[in-house]
Specification:
The chain is of the alpha/beta class and 391 residues long. 36% of the residues lie in helices and 9% in strands. A seven-stranded parallel sheet has the order 1-2-7-6-3-4-5, sandwiched between helices.
């Protein structure tokens, strides 16, 4: 790659623990890093230990009264408000410290890129994209994605592209920067009529002073590898080529997978591997190789997230794994102990063909309708022809 890739990780990030039955369980992170190590993906890599984001870091995105509420929540309880103490965002001990550590990891990863010490940096514990300036939402206390982007803007970056591939709309990041023409946010997600948070329609393009800087691709339930990639390739490259970002930030939630219990898209691990390789290519082609990679959602804790994000780590580190790679016996034994009765896969593949047919400008399916709607809403705002499949 020509320069170091920074991997931000420490077991202390597992302290962001919303409770034993909560879908966002830290075991998914632990199993991912164990699998990546066991497969040799992290050979020769010394992870960077994240440090907590400061109040100054957080206040670039969050209101001071909200940060104070997060700090006091473990002693005050649900009466503290701000979306804290709900089923989605339960209060837990040292919540501020754990949440600030996640934000600090993503901010630190951004700093590695801005400083020139690395072209790529990854923090899989990040990607908490739903948190708003004054309240928690969707399992997210602090919006580490927005914290990292805001810090890079303060360092003088003038064009940052944020691409969100989580199954849920990247609403918190869009809200943070929808009026800032320096940030292009693109979110590919399940259609808001069918999934929380109910936002992210094609018509959400940003206010007049930043028209076209918010891009949303609302995919129908059941969209598979071929449909997802067809949509992404029909929309994202043209916008990145027009915007010419100085860095590409990607939120790589693993929950578009067909087995995810909280959503209804139908990707496979094979499709996710292919998508990660595409993101790498786009970072090289459109962002000069600068690529900040964050985790996100993903609630098939044992079968999907560890494999998907091990492929993600391998892709970022240029240590690509063959799909047919067998899962190591030591990892299988450990995973079996924590997974209980959940049957485990045996390889890094689901056995699916992840190829796709590029969009040809004609509406053949509900995925093509989503492509058409987004292109018609956004492309003219970038000087692009929504009807020309070459754009």
């Amino acid at each position: 790659m020509g320069s170091e890739c920074a991997v931000f990780w420490d077991e202390s990030v597992l302290g962001y623990d919303l409770g034993g039955e909560h879908p966002l369980h830290p075991v998914r992170l632990d199993l991912t890093m164990r699998l990546a190590r066991s497969l040799g993906v992290l050979d020769g890599v010394e992870p960077v230990v994240p440090s907590q984001a400061t109040d100054q870091d957080l206040e670039r995105v969050h209101r001071p009264d909200y940060i104070d509420a997060v700090r006091s929540a473990p002693t005050v309880g649900p009466e503290v408000g701000h979306g804290l103490g709900t089923a989605d965002n339960p209060i837990f001990d040292r919540m501020h410290e754990a949440s600030a550590l996640i934000a600090g990891g993503s901010r630190g990863a951004a700093q590695e890129i801005v400083s020139g010490r690395a072209e790529r940096a990854i923090s899989i514990s990040g990607g908490l994209h739903h948190a708003m300036s004054d309240h928690a939402a969707g399992f997210c206390i602090y919006n580490d994605c927005a914290v990292a982007i805001a810090w890079m803007l303060e360092q003088g970056f003038e064009r940052i592209a944020y691409l969100d591939i989580d199954v849920h709309h990247g609403d918190g990041v869009q809200a943070a920067f929808e009026s800032d023409p320096r940030v292009l946010t693109i979110s590919l997600h399940q259609h808001p009529r069918t999934l929380w948070p109910g936002t992210g329609s094609a018509g959400e393009c940003g206010p007049p002073d930043a028209a076209g800087r918010s891009v949303n691709v609302a995919l129908p339930p059941g969209t598979d590898d071929a449909g997802w990639q067809r949509a992404a390739h029909a929309i994202v490259p043209s916008l990145l080529d027009s915007f010419r970002p100085q860095v590409l930030v990607t939120q790589c939630g693993a929950d578009p997978h067909r087995e995810d219990p909280l959503a209804d898209l139908a990707l496979s691990v094979d499709g996710q591997r292919s998508i990660y390789r595409t993101l790498r290519e786009w970072s090289q082609r459109y962002a000069g190789g600068k690529w900040l990679v964050l985790g996100g959602g993903g609630y098939s804790l044992f079968r999907v997230v560890p494999r998907a994000w091990t492929h993600l780590l391998a892709t970022v580190l240029d240590a690509d794994l063959a799909p047919e790679t067998t899962l190591p016996a030591d990892w299988m034994a450990h995973a079996a102990r924590v997974a209980g009765n959940t049957p485990l896969p045996t390889s890094m593949s689901d056995g699916y063909d992840s190829s796709f047919v590029p969009w040809d400008g004609v509406t053949h399916s509900s995925v093509d309708t989503a492509i058409r709607d987004t292109r018609q809403a956004v492309f003219p705002l970038h000087g692009l022809d929504p009807f020309d499949s070459r754009d």
